[in-house]
């Protein structure tokens, strides 16, 4: 025990996968020993490796660990090997619950494998399994009896099965919740020793800013608050033998689900734990849809495939029915009655499901959308912005935003993201540029026209904003600014404490908490005194501005493609809202929903949104942790592999984010000497932070253009990636990825690298020179990325001098009059003549090349030489809005 306490437990991120590896190692070391090829010492060392982390897991648990140790000590190598193999299998396949049942059935008189004292029936295999953390003051010798006592509460009526994990200190409770994703609820006493029994310096560094406790005792309420900050989905129960009535009466006590007077009602506690998990498990719409599918229903309306009769009775399309299965058709309906509720006007189970989603994602409201985030964005823009309002927006935002402005008449004020020219991509928009735009509008007395700041978080390539800082500083200039954060890619970020603070809802929550704290006014007033009555713009740009909490109206909207990062069917999307003024915009929000939503929303899609929420509330933490772990493994393997790294490289944080935006000095997750405390500091402080799951894999070094490489991976190796740039592809790890996927990717990269090596060896000087020239062209002769130029004066009739917004809708619809448009081929000399001598070239429509995927031209934009040169160098096939046979579509501006 003592030597255990000197081992570090703070490398918690990789611990989960390292644990599986360690168990595999224990099993194989035991097997070797059983085969006469090893000894007990190697086994004991391997067991020592997992000793501490196992304290934070219920499976295999202290008894089985003891049994294993005894088998090893008694020299029973085969018995030990068999037991270790089963434990290892259960951990690797994440099927601990089945193993627990298995262990029960094989129980001997001595119960060497016994984990459960009560009889589990076969059907309990089906029950979802989780673990409950108990923080206890009892001496460790009493723990087995305590575990027995808790296990005896189990009943065949229980919907779920859980196992207790016991810890004795505050820090160990936090550690357990971080390293063990199976923990689904926590029971804590209200007074406990603070310090871990084990060495955990990095953990302390992370905890210290949250809890100012150096040593001594800590309170259960503090623990509840910290655990909620780490994993908000957890149910926390407080056992107190003091003044429970007083604690229970505290109106601000939101982190504790229920308070019990000591352990006087153990069965009630057990039932509460199950009820808490059941509340997350409940999926109102999906549950109801399943019931609906079982009912014998005659349909006399549209949707002939509902109930499947038109499909299964047909000899010609029956294969579709067989392919998808009967349930799909039984669960189809065009009715909104019969308990199915209406997505457009939800009052029943869809409303309830949306409320649950709001709870899960930390929002005040959630709206399900069945046409993708493309639609969610248009809904939010239309709901909140009226014609003529200015929206400060990143030009790299998804096209749905730009089309939203066209439809709603908003005037976009494009702000530029920092360029990553070498990789032909943009990063994110520096806060300085946003503040500069707001200050310019203020100087012109036009701040009242600015309605919204619209940004993508994270960007396609993984840049995450310091959402809290951006919102606070903008609110200091304009206290009622609305924020739309397009988190299409990063909805799952809510489920990781390492990403959540950078999400819209995570930051909004932090700002709300700060606003409630009286210290916020003091902080604001102190800064006002320092700035004086008339600070210059330079001073305001240099200062990290604090908003006036008494004036702020926090209005935050987040859209996410639930289908992109969680288990929703394609097009499943959500809008999350925290808007202090929502009551004033609710009717226009509804109008926007009515405008864009289909009146025939797909029921399976709605159900999948409901289920995706359930999954994330119950296992999201572990799934996202897995996605991050997989990403770190891929990053490390590619960049350190002697052969792969000759031709490929995954860009690290310092290559994706220029140093001026990394004030913490963070270089990369895998930089030697970087601890998780450094990662957390970077996540808290830096202007931009890289989502590790989004990996830019440079393939130009291997002579591949991004799109070609993407095609090669798909066609020859069954590997699908999404975005490409001139010299890179984006590899993304997600909640579905496994380490087999990592292995497959690496094998493929090894194979390609080996092929290149062989080809180059055989190519001779000319071949090598040709290869090097190609690499140089891809990696160094890269086109400059053109910034947004400006709208033509014809569309800036109500704009100011200092900013570039314009009436994009006016320009867009001008192009509907064909006589007012002209086409000029891109390579024609007329373009150059016009660039030199005028009249100005004004784009009639959006031109969006894929890659890079942002609008290189928008309606009404003046086309500059930089844009033309970029277009001419662009060697991509897919350019939306540009027909090579006709040329660039221009507005004949002299006719306006
Ligand atoms: C940043 C961003 N927002 C929105 C969307 C559109 O989302 P959806 O595909 O769910 O319509 C995308 C699609 O790729 C995107 O990248």
Secondary-structure-derived class? alpha/beta
The hetero compounds bound to this protein are: pyridoxal-5'-phosphate
Catalogue the unreliable spans: 1-7, 101-124
Quaternary structure state of the chains depicted: single chain
What is the count of β-strands? 25
Measure the end-to-end span: 84 Å
* Shape by Cα distribution: globular
In percent terms, what proportion of residues is strand? Answer: 5-15%
* Order of strands across the main sheet: 8-17-16-15-13-9-10
Helix content: 40-55%
Which radius of gyration do the C-alpha atoms yield? 30 Å
Total number of helices: 34
Provide a descriptive summary of the structure in words.
- The protein has 896 residues and is an alpha/beta fold.
- The longest helix has 41 residues, at 739-779.
- Helix 6 links the parallel strand 1 (129-135) and strand 2 (161-167).
- Helix 4 (77-92) runs antiparallel to helix 5.
- Helix content is 46%, strand content 13%.
- It has a 7-stranded mixed β-sheet with strand order 8-17-16-15-13-9-10, sandwiched between helices. A 5-stranded parallel β-sheet has the order 2-1-3-6-7, with helices on both faces.
- The chain has 34 helices and 25 strands.
- The structure holds pyridoxal-5'-phosphate.
- The site of pyridoxal-5'-phosphate has 11 residues, from helix 17.
List keywords for this structure.
896 residues, 25 strands, disordered N terminus, binds pyridoxal-5'-phosphate, alpha/beta, 5-stranded parallel beta sheet
Strand and helix map with partners:
Blueprint lengths: L11 H23 L5 H16 L5 H13 L3 H16 L3 H10 L23 E7 L7 H9 L9 E7 L2 H10 L3 E7 L1 E3 L7 H7 L9 E3 H11 L4 E6 L3 H5 L9 E4 L4 H16 L2 H11 L14 H4 L5 H7 L1 H5 L18 H13 L3 E5 L2 H13 L5 E5 L4 H10 L2 E5 L3 E2 L4 E2 L4 H13 L6 E7 L6 E3 L1 H11 L4 E5 L17 H13 L2 H13 L5 H6 L12 E6 L1 H4 L7 E7 L2 H15 L6 H38 L3 H4 L1 E2 L2 H4 L19 H10 L2 E3 L3 E5 L7 H12 L10 E5 L6 H41 L28 H7 L6 E4 L4 H9 L10 E3 L14 H9 L4 E3 L7 E4 L5
Parallel strand pairs: 1-2, 1-3, 3-6, 6-7, 9-10, 9-13, 13-15, 15-16
Antiparallel strand pairs: 4-5, 8-17, 11-12, 14-19, 16-17, 18-20, 20-21, 22-25, 23-24
Bound molecules: pyridoxal-5'-phosphate.
The site of pyridoxal-5'-phosphate has 11 residues, from helix 17.
